[in-house]
Amino acid sequence: MSVKLLFLLFIFLLGVRAQCCVDDMETCNAAAVLPDQLTCPSSSSTILSPSPLSPSSSSLSSSNSDISSSSQEEIKIMREITRVLTRYGRSLSDLPGMLSRNMNAQSATPLVTKPSSSSIPSSSSSSSSSSSSSSTMLPPTSNKDKSESKKGSKDDGPTHFVALRITNPDVRSALVGVQKSILAQVPSSEGMIIDPVKFHITGFVMNLPDAATLLRAKEALNETMALYHDVYGQEKISLMIKGVGQFSGGRVVWAGVGESPHRVSLLSYMDRVRKIFMSKGIKINSEQFSPHMTLFKERFGNRKKRITPGARKDLAFAIKPFQDHDFGVQRFDSFQLLEMRRQDPTDGFYRCEASIPLPPPPSS
């Protein structure tokens, strides 16, 4: 009902004079001589005067027995508001409290600005004076504004990540076979499936809100080359892709990495890489590194990519045959800094901001 309340707020500001007239027309007209404020006879609350210009006593006496055409329109509007409020078991006296509760329940900017000491210009004032009105209702948020507020600024969350890309066609093919098997048993998981071209192992995610921070991240990535030689020498990182599991209550299905000396080395290497990035003042996630590749993922903001709790149980059953399955060995050729929200137009993978070869060339 929030949209209705916003509409009622707009009418409420325009029709305060009419509300007074509905309750007591003569008292409302007489109150118009006050230059700053008037109090509605039917309520103890104070409302703004519709005009800073005080009408003469003769004009008040001549109009005391009649209602202007604009007032008649206002009365009609207020009667319609009353009808809507009655439909919801409310009355005009409830309207201020309803509007107050509605705005307090939201974290948005207040719709009505605090009035200044000056009065609001009347409708007969010039356009220049009306544009400087001391009580203004801001326009509702546009669709573009809403989408931007949902996304949030780049300062709010992760924008980039470092990763090792799965490129071995045999490993990819084996993992696609798992996806097809699960999809056949749980058709509602179709919206969760990850494009095989995006298979990767995430090191950690980070927030790079501007070009300067991105530059520092690239510098940090270059510094990891010397670290790589300390851990792996001239060998490539070589990992056995093995097993399928779930986490986040079944909202994510992943393929794991089998135990091996290279896996142990990768845990140590990634921890030290994380510290290099942090030394550059880069905000990164605090999650412990656990090497895996995502096969299915539920998206909370997209209904088509969400499934029911019952379907999550079906997923747990569907992955059982693959819990200890070997999918092959992946040898990694590069370590990449990737952007989350953009993709490479050539192959559909994430946009690569920077990359170092593995193993890096020996330092001179």
Overview of the structural elements:
Mean pLDDT is 74; it is low at 16-67 and 107-152. The chain is extended. The protein has helices at 2-14, 16-31, 57-63, 69-87, 95-104, 127-130, 143-151, 169-185, 211-232, 261-279, 309-318, and strands at 37-39, 46-48, 160-165, 200-207, 238-247, 252-257, 283-284, 292-297, 326-331, 334-343, 350-357. The longest helix is centred in the middle third of the chain and has 22 residues, at 211-232. It has 364 residues and is an alpha+beta fold. The strands form three sheets. A five-stranded antiparallel sheet has the order 7-4-3-10-11, covered by helices on one side.
Keywords:
4-stranded antiparallel sheet, 40% helix, 11 strands, 11 helices, extended, 364 residues, 5-stranded antiparallel sheet, alpha+beta
Offer a concise description of the structure.
The protein has helices spanning 2-14, 16-31, 57-63, 69-87, 95-104, 127-130, 143-151, 169-185, 211-232, 261-279, 309-318; strands at 37-39, 46-48, 160-165, 200-207, 238-247, 252-257, 283-284, 292-297, 326-331, 334-343, 350-357.
What order do the strands of the largest sheet run in, or round the barrel if closed? 7-4-3-10-11
Largest sheet: 5 strands, antiparallel
Number of strands: 11
Strand content: 15-25%
Calculate the mean pLDDT score and round it: 74
Residues in helix, %:
40-55%
In terms of quaternary structure, the protein is single chain
- How far the N terminus sits from the C terminus, by CA atoms, comes to 69 Å
Q: Encode the helix/strand succession as letters.
A: HHEEHHHHHEHEHEEHEEHEEE
Low-confidence stretches: 16-67, 107-152
Output the structural class. Answer: alpha+beta
Number of helices: 11
Determine Rg (CA atoms, Å). Answer: 33 Å
Q: What is the global morphology?
A: extended
